[in-house]
Write a structure and sequence with these properties.
The protein has seven helices and six strands. The protein is an alpha+beta fold. Strands 1, 4, 5 and 6 form a four-stranded antiparallel sheet that branches. Strands 2-3 form a two-stranded antiparallel ribbon.
Length: about 200
């Protein structure tokens, strides 16, 4: 029985994330850190210092780019995978970013702040040639609203005012549509919007 050295396993795992390495290496992450620090404010001398903001942001990007379903699953992967931990600035003796830490992080940054960072990323990737920019794949998927129709307006959902009716086969269902544009060469999402289900 032959044993594979730990560093060899790590290198092999790192090759799985080669595309992520290329993306992060192509980006100027300095502006991201400044934006994140502004969202969190100055560090207080009292209390425990927060985790690496840039590391948490990279973990959020990896979750989306690797199609990881939940932050609990991301936590398990970061706990077991040294190559992934390295990408997200998690030391050997540190625990991964807990799902509750990610929740607070996303609330601090806010959807508008996160979107502005991603938009700037896309411009950088385009300028550095990571994006193919020749072919865009466009598609949409339907997300069902798990509620009931508004008794005062049968065409909309009761608790989600943006959900609308859409025909699916012989049925009419309430929900929203996620419309996505992806760079076909790199498979990098470049634009996304969520609209009522009756909007093309």
């Amino acid at each position: 029985m032959s044993l594979i050295p730990a560093h060899a396993v790590c290198c092999e795992r790192m090759s799985e994330y080669e595309a992520l390495h290329e993306i992060f290496e192509s980006l100027d992450l300095g502006f991201v850190e400044k934006r994140l620090v502004r969202s969190y404010g100055r560090r207080s001398r009292a209390g425990r210092p927060h985790r690496s903001l840039l590391g948490m942001f990279k973990a959020e990007l990896i979750k989306r780019l690797r199609r990881i379903e939940s932050h609990a699953e991301l936590y398990r992967l970061l706990e077991a995978d040294d190559a992934l931990r390295s990408l997200c600035f998690i030391g050997e003796d540190e625990k991964p970013y807990h799902p509750s830490t990610h929740l607070r992080f996303r609330r601090r940054i806010g959807p508008e702040g996160f979107q502005s960072l991603v938009n700037r990323f896309i411009k950088q990737l385009d300028n550095t040639g990571v994006l193919d920019s020749e072919t865009l794949a466009l598609d949409a998927t339907f997300i069902k609203a798990y509620s009931r129709r508004d008794p005062e307006d049968n065409s909309r959902e009761y608790s989600d005012s943006e959900a609308r009716l859409r025909r699916q086969g012989r049925n009419v269902v309430l929900g929203c549509g996620v419309h996505l544009a992806v760079d076909a060469g790199s498979e990098m999402p470049v634009a996304v919007t969520v609209e009522p289900a009756n909007v093309n």
